[in-house]
């Protein structure tokens, strides 16, 4: 029996430079499982996704990180892209928003370069996770155990390395989000 996210609300925290496929596929997965997804960003209006290093599609932001109430959400997804998490980790409201999910024990999914924001939020210490290989040193220096695996789950934190891992990542976030708080 497939996991259901009926009645759950999932925040997707992203800004300009988010990797298109890492935003679109996980969002489709949680919506198909019954969740309501909302795009939270560091600015109101629209953001532009990228396909690798080329601008792609624009998406309407539902709420800014400054105005977003983490209590309204059951789970969080942090897509990657090179620029996206670099912008997010320099925004105090985005970092606060991310940290609140860990403080509340809510499940979080993160892929590719997305863990940069987790490092800034100081929530990876003692955690086992994966990422795009270039983040390994950053994660280890922040106290994480980095592994090179398709999908890693650690007490509600689901991580994957790259777009090729999306099928496993999407299935695992739906499963973990259905379980709820950890």
TrEMBL record:
Protein name: Protease
NCBIfam families in the record: PfpI (TIGR01382)
Keywords, sorted A to Z: Hydrolase, Protease
GO terms of molecular function: peptidase activity
Gene3D superfamilies, A to Z: 3.40.50.880
One of the GO BP terms on file: proteolysis
Segments forming domain DJ-1/PfpI: 8-176
CDD domains named among the record's database cross-references: GATase1_PfpI_like
Stated family: Belongs to the peptidase C56 family.
């Amino acid at each position: 029996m497939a996991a259901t996210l009926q009645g759950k609300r999932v925040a997707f925290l992203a800004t300009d430079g988010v990797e298109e496929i890492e935003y679109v596929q996980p969002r489709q997965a949680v919506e198909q499982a019954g969740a309501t997804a909302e795009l939270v960003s560091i600015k109101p209006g629209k953001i532009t996704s990228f396909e690798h290093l080329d601008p792609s599609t624009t998406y309407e932001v539902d709420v800014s990180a400054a105005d977003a109430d983490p209590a309204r959400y059951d789970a969080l997804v942090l897509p990657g892209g090179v620029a996206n998490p670099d912008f997010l980790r320099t925004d105090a409201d985005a970092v606060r928003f991310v940290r609140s999910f860990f403080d509340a024990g809510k499940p979080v999914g993160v892929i590719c370069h997305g863990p940069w924001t987790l490092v800034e939020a100081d929530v990876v210490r003692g955690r086992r996770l994966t990422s795009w290989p270039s983040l390994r040193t950053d994660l280890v220096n922040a106290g994480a155990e980095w592994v090179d695996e398709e999908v890693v789950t650690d007490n509600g934190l689901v991580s994957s390395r790259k777009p090729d891992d999306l099928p496993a990542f999407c299935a695992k976030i739906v499963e973990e989000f259905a379980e709820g708080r950890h």
